[in-house]
Amino acid sequence: MSKTAYVRTKPHLNIGTMGHVDHGKTTLTAAITKVLAERGSGSFVPFDRIDRAPEEAARGITINIAHVEYETDTRHYAHVDMPGHADYVKNMVTGAAQLDGAILVVSALDGIMPQTAEHVLLARQVGVDHIVVALNKADAVDDGEDAVLTDLVELEVRDLLSAHGYGGESAPVVRVSGLKALEGDPRWTASVEALLDAVDTYVPMPERYLDAPFLLPVENVLTITGRGTVVTGAVERGTVRVGDRVEVLGAEVETVVTGLETFGKPMEEAQAGDNVALLLRGVPRDAVRRGHVVAAPGSVTPSRRFTARVYVLSAREGGRTTPVSTGYRPQFYIRTADVVGDVDLGGTAVARPGDTVTMTVELGRDVPLEAGLGFAVREGGRTVGAGTVTSVG
Ligand SMILES: Nc1nc2c(ncn2[C@@H]2O[C@H](COP(=O)(O)OP(=O)(O)OP(=O)(O)O)[C@@H](O)[C@H]2O)c(=O)[nH]1
Ligand SMILES: [Mg+2]
Question: What is the biggest distance separating any 2 CA atoms in the chain, rounded to whole angstroms?
Answer without folding.
Answer: 65
